[in-house]
Structure formats: C-alpha cells, structure tokens
Amino acid sequence: MPGKRARRHFSHLSEFERGLIIGMKTAGWSMRRVAGQVDRSECAVRNCWEQWTREYTHAWRNGSGATRNTTRRADRRIVWQALVDTTVTRSAIRADVGVAIVPQTISRLLVEANLKSKHPFRALPLTPEHRQLRLQWCQAISMWTVTDWQKVVFSDESRFVLGTDDNRVRV
C-alpha cells in the first residue's frame, strides 16, 4: 500500500531506528542509503544525524508542544460542569472557569472524559404487547388488494436543520 509507506515516513523514529541510523552514518553510509535501509525519509535520517552530531544523544527530547493554560483542577471543573448541566455551552463553561482558553480545548477535555454529543433517545423499545399488535396489523394488511393499496398515500419524511441546534444532548 503506497499510503501506508508514506505515513511511515512521517511517524516518530524508534530508539532502535535511531541507533541504526547513527551506526550506519558512523560507518560512512550516505543519507540516501541509510534512508532506504531503515525505510524512512532522508529528512528524518538527516535530523537524527544532526541531533547526534550536535548533542551526542539520540534520545527524544521532552518539552515540545504548547504549554497548558489550564490546571488539572480547572480541567476537572470543566468536565464537572458538562456533567451537571447537559445543555451548557462551551462559551458558558469558558466564562465560568475564568481562564483564557479556546473552545477547542474545552471540546478536547470533554472528549478525553468520554463525554460526547448524541441524539437523545426518542422512542421507547417495543413491549411484547406492541409487537403482537404490529404483527396482527401486518397480517391484516397482507390480504389487501390492489384497489385497497391505491387508496393509500405514501409520504417521505426528511429532517432539515436551519439553525445550529440539532437537538443533541450531552450524555
């Protein structure tokens, strides 16, 4: 699969692969030959080798990424608010927490807490009595003739949401 190979080029190098790259480059192999051997891009091999020659280490560095704007306590408060009031909005949560965070941060925290939006349960499951009544109705209709069916009007129901609210409830 060509897509799988392309994705592998951009994944992180393992410790073993980093050691291989350093060993092969120390032995005098070219960047292209090393990249072909470990099935990685030449850019990844070059970055690994440059880090080795600059720092004499091939270990993955910590501290990358953006700094956190919320504390663990604020994170728990955001999740708690979503649990208590299922109709609360992200902007209301952000105003209550009092920390300057983007709405995507709130969404990410709620997804990490396994809180997702879904449609509320609208129909009750059928009881055995309901099933029996439906079966009787189907058996009665199965005896209809063509003239009986010509008196029936069929319609198609479609749901259109004109606003932003699609009646999803956070559960």
Automatic annotation (TrEMBL):
<dbReference type="GO" id="GO:0006313">
    <property type="term" value="P:DNA transposition"/>
</dbReference>
<dbReference type="GO" id="GO:0003677">
    <property type="term" value="F:DNA binding"/>
</dbReference>
<dbReference type="InterPro" id="IPR036397">
    <property type="entry name" value="RNaseH_sf"/>
</dbReference>
<dbReference type="GO" id="GO:0015074">
    <property type="term" value="P:DNA integration"/>
</dbReference>
<protein>
    <submittedName>
        <fullName>HTH_Tnp_Tc3_2 domain-containing protein</fullName>
    </submittedName>
</protein>
<feature type="domain" description="Transposase Tc1-like">
    <location>
        <begin position="75"/>
        <end position="139"/>
    </location>
</feature>
<dbReference type="InterPro" id="IPR002492">
    <property type="entry name" value="Transposase_Tc1-like"/>
</dbReference>
<dbReference type="Pfam" id="PF01498">
    <property type="entry name" value="HTH_Tnp_Tc3_2"/>
</dbReference>
